[in-house]
Amino acid sequence: MYSSEKSGYRKRGGNRCNSTSAAESGAIPPGWATFALKGYIANSLFTKSMSKKSSGAAARHSLIIRSKVMSSRILDISSDSLTMEMNENGTIAGKYTGTQLATVVGTIDQYGSSSWQGKFMHMTNKGDMVVAIGHGTSKPSSKKGIAIIGGEGVMWTRSQTLSNLNGSKWKCEGESNMIKGSSLIYVDF
Fold it and tell me: Both 25 and 62 in a single domain?
């Protein structure tokens, strides 16, 4: 470790800025010093952990979605919130199997709680498309970077075989791994 560790610098994981002096200099808005040190700004909002506890979960949930953040961008920063947009893709298992593309816009407060809105597109392995919109919240992440999320929304499809999903309301719960940029979401409809 560096001798300047007391001033906020660390060797492992690369140098980090001294959050106190960065906030004082205006590089980080006031109140964001702790927020930045925890890595919330560098890592995306709704990336969830790839937990191994999903065996048997397919029988309990309509869908299990595992996704990874592919890109993110900061839309707005203020003294008490951060708004980001994340683009994710992943796999779907359950009532149908396939892939998911998602765009999620989330706003995090300086304490780590957040709210989000998302647009989702599922392509099944049989070539059917399902689209959905939704919104939800997330609790602050743990020391390991895991945040618990929940939400709800509505889905539609033009598929004849999945037409029973048109207008269906869905609810989700899962985990976001802020550090790894991965997610595990359980969906019920």
Answer: no
59 has pLDDT over 90: no
Judged by average pLDDT, the poorest of 11-15, 48-52, 56-60, 122-126 is 48-52
Q: What is the DSSP letter of 20?
A: H
Same domain, 30 and 86: no
Q: Which residues form the domain of 151?
A: 57-188
Q: What is the pLDDT of residue 178?
A: 86
Residue 114 has pLDDT above 80, yes or no: yes
13, amino acid identity = G
Considering the domain architecture, whether residues 22 and 69 belong to the same structural domain is answered as no
Angle of CA points 41, 14, 29, to nearest 5°: 30
Count Cα atoms within 13 angstroms, Cβ side, for 157: 18
What per-residue confidence (pLDDT) applies to 21? Answer: 42
Quickly count: other Cβ atoms within 10 Å of residue 42's Cβ.
11
pTM for the full predicted model: 0.70
Give the residue from 96, 36, 86, 40 showing the smallest Cα distance to 65.
96
C-alpha–C-alpha distance, residues 107 and 173, integer Å = 18
Coil, helix or strand at residue 147: strand
- Per the CB < 8 A criterion, the answer to whether 148 and 165 are in contact is no
As for how many domains the chain has, the answer is 2
